[in-house]
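Researcher: Let's do a round of design. I'm pasting the C-alpha cells now; please hold your answer until I've finished.
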C-alpha cells in the first residue's frame, strides 16, 4: 500500500493549482509523486498555502462543508476599510456564486495596523501614489470560488494581493515563494485539528 505524503507549498502568483498544462503549473515548483494532488485551489493570481497530498480521506475531510475548518487570508486592498466595512465582512455579504446570489457565512475580519511580513510578490502590485492601500486579515470557514476577492469588492475595497496564510494551525510564516516542505501525517493532522 503506498505511503501517504503531505507537502505544503507557498504557491507563487501566476501559477495554476494543477499539474496538467504546458506552463505556469505546479510542475514548475518541484518533482512530486504522481499520485499527489492539491487539496482545494488557489486561483492563478492568489498566493500562499497549498496542501498537496495523496491522502484521500484528508482530502475528503477538508473539502466537505460539514467539517468546517478555518482558513486565514491576508488581503491587500485598495483604500482603507471603514469599521462598517469590516463589520459587513464579519456578518457576511452577498456575492455571486455560479450565477446565483449567496450570503457568505460569518467570518472574522481585522484591519491590520502594519503590513504583514510576507515575501515580495513577483510582479509587485501596481503602486499608485494617490490611492492608499491597507491589509485585512480574514478568517473564513468556507471556500467559494474567488470568495475573498468578491467579499472585499462587495464592501467597496477591491483586493490587490491575496495570500492564504493558514489553514487552522498550519501556516506559511517564514516560507519563501515557491518553497516546499514535507510533513508527516501526525503533524499535518495535529496542525489541521483533525482527530
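Researcher: That's everything. Go ahead.
Model: Designed sequence:
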Amino acid at each position: 500500500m503506498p505511503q501517504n505524503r503531505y507537502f505544503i507549498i507557498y504557491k507563487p502568483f501566476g501559477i495554476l493549482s494543477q499539474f496538467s498544462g504546458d506552463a505556469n503549473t505546479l510542475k514548475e515548483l518541484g518533482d512530486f509523486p504522481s499520485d499527489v494532488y492539491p487539496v482545494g485551489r488557489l486561483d492563478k493570481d492568489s498566493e500562499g498555502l497549498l496542501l498537496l497530498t495523496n491522502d484521500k480521506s484528508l482530502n475528503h475531510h477538508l473539502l466537505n462543508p460539514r467539517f468546517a475548518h478555518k482558513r486565514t487570508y491576508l488581503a491587500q486592498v485598495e483604500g482603507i476599510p471603514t469599521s462598517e466595512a469590516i463589520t459587513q465582512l464579519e456578518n457576511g455579504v452577498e456575492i455571486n456564486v455560479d450565477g446565483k446570489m449567496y450570503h457568505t457565512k460569518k467570518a472574522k475580519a481585522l484591519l491590520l495596523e502594519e503590513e504583514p511580513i510576507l515575501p515580495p510578490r513577483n510582479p509587485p502590485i501596481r503602486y499608485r501614489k494617490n490611492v492608499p492601500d491597507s491589509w485585512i486579515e480574514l478568517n473564513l470557514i468556507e471556500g467559494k470560488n474567488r470568495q475573498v476577492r468578491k467579499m472585499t469588492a462587495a464592501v467597496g475595497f477591491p483586493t490587490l494581493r491575496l495570500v492564504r496564510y493558514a489553514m487552522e494551525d498550519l501556516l506559511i510564516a517564514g516560507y519563501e515563494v515557491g518553497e516546499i516542505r514535507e510533513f508527516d501525517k501526525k503533524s499535518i493532522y495535529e496542525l489541521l485539528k483533525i482527530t
